[in-house]
Write a structure and sequence with these properties.
The chain has 14 helices and 19 strands. With 411 residues, it is an alpha/beta fold. The strands form 5 sheets. The chain has an 8-stranded mixed beta sheet with strand order 12-11-8-13-16-17-18-19, sandwiched between helices. A 5-stranded parallel beta sheet has the order 2-1-3-4-5, with helices on both faces. Strands 6-7 form a two-stranded antiparallel ribbon. A hairpin with a 5-residue loop joins strand 6 (148-151) and strand 7 (157-161). The longest helix has 21 residues, at 385-405. It is elongated and about 85 Å long. The structure holds cytidine-5'-triphosphate (CTP). The site of cytidine-5'-triphosphate (CTP) has 15 residues, from helix 12 and strand 16.
Length: 411
């Protein structure tokens, strides 16, 4: 499932965008509608809200709008920006980098592919100014669904009518399909913290938000993979299409992961251990009764939790699949420590986060990371967690191919 931002502009074809939204959904995609102010004169936001089951994005300056995570995250999370219908006005704005509303700003903010379905009067379409703007966008890699010829709403006959919704959906699906490089692949991602219960009301936890693991799961889904997300407690909505296994403690996460791997090991192509698994848990497990506040000092005895990633490395030893990825929260120079971890846990790639740097790590929306393999150390500059997920999967994809042929024999 991919996330498509559907930009709708103020043209008579705006009503057809409803059918485009529905068609995209029928093909299994998630749609976020972005309406320009003029679009709302032709078709009501409620129609899109009811169909997409998401809030419609309209005015970027409406009070409260910028507090909505979804709104802000759209630029980085979307897999395709589709503008249908695109008026001469939006074509001009996109071509010239004008960002005076949410849709035009989104075009500048996203790195996702862009597909534009123009619709306008035939003389406008043929005008040198519009033609130059379309050429400019094409030169930048924007794709188009050509407008059709026929009767136009203005009473003219000619080229300029919005392409048929089915053709727009097929073009969008084709572009998304080109990115579905993980179709047929099976991926297991762990995410979030684990919490170690102390008694019925208390636990030891950590500050992991789960966002990095959820971003990897969402990116793998967008690339067509089947995804199992084994998640500790988080406040996040899991990406649509993932099979979600909810756990609490490290031991529960271990058994959930190992059960999957044992049952399905040969079928799994990738296991990414993104979860911040607790290193220690109360010895003897959680107390049955609540600990009382009856002493000045309380000493807890903790014991090490099982190392899930280490167990996966040992289990896989000598086999090329699944590709194993670990995460490491480090401070200072991460490369040496992460490479040591890579060998000790027998994994293919360690993503080291320098959590001491601003903009990286727990609770943050962004990450700065170094991807460390036996042969390379690649620094990925500050970017959203979704962007890091993209780079990570780009690097993993060739390894999956090697694993298929046995060329990537586990190190
Ligand atoms: N991990 C795991 N099981 C644990 C602890 C960690 O599978 N009990 C995984 C994490 O999901 C992550 C990686 O191992 O992918 C992080 O390891 P880290 O805790 O940094 O490694 P340690 O071996 O515990 O090393 P350190 O001595 O640096 O704490």
């Amino acid at each position: 499932m991919a996330l498509v931002a559907l930009g709708v502009c103020g043209g008579i074809g705006a009503y057809k965008a409803v059918e485009v939204a529905r068609g995209l959904q029928q093909r299994g995609h998630d749609v976020a509608a972005v309406l320009t102010a003029n679009a709302t004169r032709f078709v009501g936001p409620l129609t899109f809200e009811a169909i997409t089951r998401r809030p419609v994005i309209g005015d970027q300056f409406a009070p409260g709008v910028n507090a909505q995570i979804e709104h802000i995250a759209l630029a980085t999370d979307l897999d395709l920006l589709l503008v249908a219908p695109a008026t001469a006005n939006i074509v001009g704005k996109l071509a010239n980098g004008i960002a005076d509303d949410f849709l035009s700003a989104l075009y500048l903010a996203t790195t996702a592919p862009v597909l534009v379905a123009p619709a306008m009067n035939s003389n406008m379409l043929a005008h040198a100014a519009v033609a130059a703007n379309l050429d400019r966008l094409a030169a930048r890699g924007v794709r188009f669904v050509e407008p059709g010829a026929g009767y136009l709403a203005c009473g003219w006959v000619g080229k300029g009518r919005l392409a048929e919704p089915a053709d727009i959906v097929a073009a969008a699906d084709g572009l998304l399909g080109a990115g579905r490089r993980l179709a047929g692949r099976r991926v297991l991602v762990t995410a979030g913290p684990t919490v170690e219960d102390l008694d019925p009301v208390r636990y030891l936890g950590n500050r992991s938000s789960g966002r990095m693991g959820y971003a990897i799961a969402a990116e793998a889904l967008a690339r067509g993979a089947e995804v199992v997300l084994v998640t500790g407690p988080t406040a996040l909505e899991p990406p649509a299409g993932a099979e979600v296994v909810r756990v609490r403690g490290a031991e529960e996460m271990r058994s959930a992961v190992m059960a999957r791997v044992a049952g399905d090991g040969d079928g799994l192509d990738l296991v990414a251990m993104v979860a911040a698994v607790a290193d220690y848990t109360p010895a003897g497990g959680a107390r049955e009764a609540k600990l009382l506040r009856d002493r000045d000092e309380l000493v807890l005895t903790l014991r090490r939790t099982p190392d899930i990633l280490g167990a996966l490395g040992r289990w896989r030893a000598g086999r090329p699949r699944p590709v194993l990825v670990g995460f490491a929260a480090e401070v200072g120079d991460p490369v040496a420590r992460a490479r040591e971890k890579l060998r000790r846990k027998q994994v293919d790639l360690v993503v080291a986060n320098d959590v001491s740097r601003p903009g990286a790590g727990f609770g943050s929306d962004t990450n700065i990371a170094t991807l460390i393999s036996e042969a390379e150390a690649e620094e990925v500059p500050l970017g959203s967690k979704r962007e890091l997920a993209r780079v990570l999967l780009d690097r993993i994809e060739p390894r999956l191919g090697e694993a298929d042929t046995g060329a990537g024999e586990a190190k």
